[in-house]
Design brief:
The protein has 15 helices and 2 strands. It has 264 residues and is mostly helical. Strands 1-2 form a two-stranded antiparallel ribbon. The protein is globular and about 60 Å long.
Amino acid sequence: MFPAVIIAALLVSSCNNNKDKAATQNGVATIPPYTNYLTNQVKEHPDSVGLRLMLAASLDSAGAYQQALTQVDSLLQKDSLNNGLWFTKAQVLEHAKDTFAAIAAYKNTIAIYPSPQALLALTNLYAETKNPKALELCQRINDLRMGREYDSYTAFFTGVYYEHTGNSKQALHWLDESISNNYTFIDAYMEKGFVYYDTKQYSEALKIFNTAATVNNTYADAYYWQGKTYEALQKKQEAKEKYQQALSLNKNLQEAAEGIKRLE
């Protein structure tokens, strides 16, 4: 089911949410045993597309992006018109924060077959890079008439575009539109909170982050941003409590731990 799975990956770079980082040692990705196992399997079965894709995905998850790209590129050399392979390459490039290369790969994907997920992924990066083509793609997706869930995504990316281009009024309008189409869309609430926070409307930001925590009461970032907002309001005890709550939900949320230490 595309929306529930794909959109979560697309929104990682769209929001200012904190996220777990790939395990590293001295700045080098740590390769887990299962990835090493897949590497050996590919050596034994070099013509297996499935194994090579599994290895690329595992390397991507481990943060070994260049090695993952090597695997995908080896498949593209044999099947350069495979839109799925181009989409996979674009995702790895996006995870590696090579935004412009990722945009080029998504464009190749769409040139072969304009799937909704590829269109959304490219829209995401256009919005993040303040490219007005984001609005054109949102309209293109809307024209497919795929339902309110997709309408929520396009409204969200429109809001992100306006937020990044400094038009907070339009950003809030479109984020509200996104929420009206999908009231459980946590990322839209968070992005709306960021708009208020960035414009120093802390009381309004706090209301939105509180609502986000109501929509998903196990979402650590909602509590973390409540903490940040309380700290901006000079309410140190409340801030510390929210940082602690965030950390209890996500022990890897380093920013929350730093917030607690800062307030002690």
